[in-house]
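Standup notes
- DV: blocked on the single-chain target, sequence here:
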Amino acid sequence: MDADGTIEKLDCIVVGAGTFEYPDFPMESSVFNVKPREHIPGEVVTTYLKAYADKFGISDLIRPESKVVVAEHQDTEEGGWTLTIAKPDQTEAKIYARRLILASGLTSDAFIPHFAGQESFGGRIFHSKLFPQNRDTLETAKSITVFGGSKFAWDAVYSYATRGVKVNWVIRSSGHGPAWISPPFVTPLKKWIEKLASSPCIWGDADGYSRIRDFFHGTAIGRAIVNMFWKILGNDVLTLNAFDSHPKTAKLKPWTEAMFTGTSFSIMTYEKDILELVKGDGIDVHVGEINHLSPGKVHLADGTEFESDVLVVNTGWKHVPPIKFLPEGIERELGIPHTPEHDAPAEDLANQQDLVERADKEILRRFPRLKDQPVWNKNYVPLTDQKGIYSSDEVTPCKPLTPYMLYRFILPPSPRFLRPRDTAFVGIVSNFSNMITAHLQGLWISAYFSGLLENPEPAAAAAALKGGEEALRRLQYETVLHNRFGRWRYPTDGTRYPSFIFDAVPYLDLLQRDLGLSPYHKKGFIADWYDPYGPEDYREVNGVWLKKYGSAK
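- DV (later): unblocked, structure below
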C-alpha cells in the first residue's frame, strides 16, 4: 500500500555512486550513467528504484493512492490485521493481512507549523519535501525565505541561489543550529566519509572484535585515541569548509560536536561551491526567530524584515506512523512512540523506568566517554513553544513522546505480536547505509516470518505465557538497551528513534548473526578491521542464506 501515486521523484543530488544501491542490484555505470565516487542526481535514483521494482516484480504489487488509515490487530491464535484503506474516490475498503510490515519510515509525513500572520502572507508556504511540486517557484519567485538549518535547507538555498533568486536564510537562534555538512573526503588521509563506519555501540559485540572495542572505549589510552579521532574529523571538516573566513559563512558553523551528531551529519553534494555562493550578495543568513508574516514579508523577532514571495520550511517530520492502530492503546505493545506515563503497565516497555535506568547504567559503564554529554544550546526552545509559531497537530517533532522500542529496531517486543509472528517494521533505522540496512532487514524479516532465524530469542519470548518468561525478559531488556543507546550516543538525533552513522556495520553484523550467517566478507582480518564495507560486500548474502536454509523455507 502506498498513499502516493508512484515511486516518488527525487530532485536533490544524493550520496556518491557505489554507496547508494541495493547489494543485489548494482547501479551499473553503463546503464545509469554514473561514475564511481561522483554524486548521483535525484532523477537517476528515481530511475534506479523503478528499475529495481521492475526487475524483482514489485511494480505490479504496488497499490498506488491507497492509504492505510486504520490497522486493527486480530487477537486470535493466527493473528493478522484488518486494514481500512482510503481510496482516491473517497471510498474505503477493508482487507485482511496475515502479516503486516510497516515501511512508512521516518520522513513520510512532513511537519509544517502555523506562522502568525500566514493568512495574509500571500505567497506559498511549503515543506522542502514538497519542493518537486513547487519547482515552478525557481522561475517565478524573485525573493524567497528558507527556514531551518538541515541538509534540506542547504539544498533549497542552493537550488534558488543558483537560479538567481534572492535568498534569506533563517536559522533559529533557539534551535539546533546549522547541520554539519562535510566535503566527501575528510581527515588528513582523505577518507571517503560515507565509508567511515567504525564507532562505539552497544550492539557492537556481534562483529567478534569485542576485545579491541573494549580497549578503545574501556581504557584511558583507548578513549584518548578515540577522542583524537573525533577531534581530527571535526576540525578537518571545519578547516576544509573555512567557515570563519567570512562573516556570513561563520553563521553556518555547527553548534554541536561531530562525535555526538547522528544522521543530521550531511555531505556536500553540489556542483558549485555553496559556501562561495553564501559569501555573495544573493544569500543573506539570519540567526534569529521568525516573529510573524505580513503581506509579502517575513519579520524576525529582532525587528529585521525582508520581502519574500515564498517561505520554504524545514521544520522536521512526524516520526510516528500516520495510522490509527486498534485496539485502543495497542501502541504500548507495538513499540511505537506514545505518551509517557508513570506507573505504566508491564506491557508498556518504553515506560518501564527500572529497565531504562538499568540500561543507562550499563551503557555508561561500557562507554564512560558518553558520561561527558555536550551542551549544544543553553537557550534551546522547542519550535512550537517559540512566539509566533504554533501547531494544533496531534503529533509534532516537539511533542513529548516515548522513543521507538523495537527489538533489533524491527519487531514489537510483546508476546501479543511475537506469538503469531505477524508484525514488523522497516525504515525506523536511519543511517548512511540505508540501502544495505533495508536489504538485510528484508531478509531478516522473511526468515523471522518463516521461523528460520538462528537467533532463538524471538521464538522463545513468544512462548512467554507457556514458560518462556525468562527469554521474554532478556529480549525486552536488550530492546530497551539498544533503543536507549541513542539518547547518550546521539543526543540531538537519536532520542526518538535509532539514528546513527558510524555504528552501522556492527548493526548489520548483528542481523547477519541472527540469520546464521558470517558477517565477515573481506579477505582476512586486517581487511576486516581497516577496509570500509559497502553494498558490494553483501552481494551474495541472499544466495548464501538460500543455500543454507532455502530447502526448509
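- Follow-up: DSSP finds 18 helices and 22 strands in the chain.
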